[in-house]
Structures are given as structure tokens and as C-alpha cells.
Amino acid sequence: MRVVAWSSFIAVIGLISSIVAVLVGSGLETTEVPVHWDALTHPNTDVIPISVGIILFSFCAHTILPGIEGNMSRPEFFPRMLNVTFTCATVVKVFFGVFCVLAFGRGVEQSVTDNIVNFPVVAILAHACVMINVFFSLPLVFLILGEHIDLFFMQRVDVRWLNPTRSCGAYRIWILASRGALLSLGIFLAVQVPHFAIIMGLVGSLTGSLLCFIFPCLFSLKLFWKEISWCGRFARILILIFGVVGGVIGIIYSAAECASVFSQ
């Protein structure tokens, strides 16, 4: 776990460095062109549902949160960690999005580093930092996914060889095969998807709405209906309706954009 912790720390450093590099590059680009204030005052409403889906997708960390809590040395700090993490992520994303829109206007690419054309050194540095973040983020994700896969198969096959406490060659082969298959699948999907932002918007409109709005409110109302005040019930019902309506609109717009792009 110490190796995973240090790997995650390096990934965070890479993420922060990439954000700083993009902000510096965007700031340098604004010296070449005027600030695009009109992009904020007159936004393109057709892409707002897709953008909301992308934002929701970026907040969907629910699948690995139980594993993170279970592997923490001090699980009692898990709620505080969530509050700090999501607050910082929200502030950074808002500032980052507004800054890049002011710098590049409606010409922002799916990968904002592609907009830094006049300063290639900064663009290369930003890409390198993104690669560091992605590479060193894999151990934590693979640890959680690997545990779920091992548990799934241990319930269906002979557990005498599929056991991490046994030092046997079969278990090592299983680790290499299962984790290698996960990595290969991820690389294959990344290569096959040419318009990543649109796909993120489509997936985020579905899974993001379910995980962030619909399921939490639905389960809360189902489990704690008698304990929740009428104000709490009303608020949860409003959030539930917002999640359903927003998810449906996002799916429709994202699917239409996907059909338009892939038909060209």
C-alpha cells in the first residue's frame, strides 16, 4: 500500500503541474489575442447538456470509493477527505474552465493543450504532466478493480489457488493475466474512440445522473423516509427530478452530436 500511496502522490503532483502548465500557456496565448468575453456572455447553448455530462462524468468516483475507504490507514478521516477533495476539485474546475474560455473562446479543443500552438514547449510540458498523472494513477485504480475481479471469481471457482495469501505460481499468473487484460481493454477503447469529449458527455449524462442525483436520493428516500423531515423529502425529490430531466436531455443531445460527428 505504501507503493500505491506514493504512486498516487506522484499522480497528484503531475495533475497539479499539468493544470499550472495549461494556465501558463493559456495566459501566454492571451497576449497574442484579445480576451473572449463574449464566450461567457453569449454561450453556445447546444453544447451545455454535453458539458454538464462531462462534468458529471469527472465526479463519478463512486465505484472506487469503498475500496479507498477500506484501504485507508485511518478510515475515520474518509468523510473529511471526501469534502476536501470534491471542494478543491470543484473550485479548480470552475476556475480552469472560465480561464480557458476567456483565453480561447468558442475555439476550445476537446483537449485544451491543443490550443497552445504558439508556445510548443509549454504544450509539450503539459502533455508530459498529463501522462505522468495518468500513468501513476493506474496502480490505485487497478488495485480496486483487481480486488473486485478477484472477489468475483473467488466466489465461482476453486479458491485454493486464487488466494493472495498463498505464494503459488498460479496466482501470479492470474494477477498478470487479469491486470494485463484490463490495461489492454483500456488502451483499445482509448484508441477506438476518436471523439472522447462527446463520449464522455454521453456516458456522464447516464452514469453521472444515476450516481450523483438519482440513486442517492432514491435510496435515501427509500431507507430513511420516516426519519427525514418534509423539507428533506422535498429537496431530495427536486434533486431526483433534476437528475432524471437533466440526464435525459444530456443523453439526447450527446447522442445527436455523436450521430452527427460519426456520420461525417
UniProtKB/TrEMBL annotation:
InterPro entries: AA_transpt_TM
Span of domain Amino acid transporter transmembrane: 4-252
Any GO CC annotation of this UniProt entry: cytoplasmic vesicle membrane
Membrane topology: Multi-pass membrane protein
Keywords for this protein: Cytoplasmic vesicle, Membrane, Neurotransmitter transport, Transmembrane, Transmembrane helix, Transport
Membrane spanning residue stretches: 7-28, 48-68, 80-104, 124-146, 170-191, 197-225, 237-256
GO BP term, pick one: neurotransmitter transport
Similarity section: Belongs to the amino acid/polyamine transporter 2 family.
Name used for this protein in its record: Amino acid transporter transmembrane domain-containing protein
Species classification: Eukaryota, Metazoa, Spiralia, Lophotrochozoa, Platyhelminthes
